[in-house]
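FIELD: query
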Amino acid sequence: MTFTLGPKATSAGYKLAAFDQIGSTNAEAMVRARDGESGPTWFATTEQTAGRGRRQRAWVAPRGNLASSILEVMDVSPAVAATLGFAAGLSLESALQKLSIEANMRRAGTEPLQFALKWPNDVLAERQKLAGILLEAEAVAGNRLAVVVGIGTNVVAAPEGTPTPATSLAALGVQVGAEELFKALAEAWVEFRGIWDNGRGFGEIRKLWLERAFGVGERVAIQTGTTKVEGTFDTIDDTGCLIVRTADGRRMPITAGEVYFGTAASVGAA
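FIELD: result
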């Protein structure tokens, strides 16, 4: 198969740059933005050799996995642009649900997979990390903001030894290709990007995200540098911050950090 856009993405004016192999789809997207590419453009590959996740961690996609990035150039502030990551999570979760249901229909007697969104940027399957999202933004000509949302999904293989146990679609019994997943993702993106509407629709995105959120009401610990916050995952606020309810009843907003739930909370944040 080859990477293609579906009818929704095509009619909405999205473009596609596909690669047999590339260092980083995010890096390529940002280089294009600096050179004047205004998007909206998808960048996709089944083999990424120099990608990165949050905190500059390596994110290598071996052949068969999906590394994809969407470039959107917008007139929004960086703070508003940051909330686009929640629309990305919803888009991927929607695509995965669609493909999982279709795969389930072909495998009689199996239960549909359970997907969830883990703050701030992971998509889980059966409580294991299936995908990660990295959002980057940079000012470009015309006082506009180039926003690149990278979405890396474990299709055929998952890394070992990660802080959160990882899995792949293949390991979960969902036999789909990266190209098929990409097409479903790009179609779902049109819907949730439209709801987000340059930040004006984040209230609805927040509602939809919370309906699919992992760990609401559970014990949580967040490690940010040398600072540790523990409590219960209460909600996310209207800027996308994680709200933790501490033992003394305070509601603390968290903008970034390593997040651990349940029994991992005491281990990971120790």
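FIELD: remark
The radius of gyration is 18 Å.
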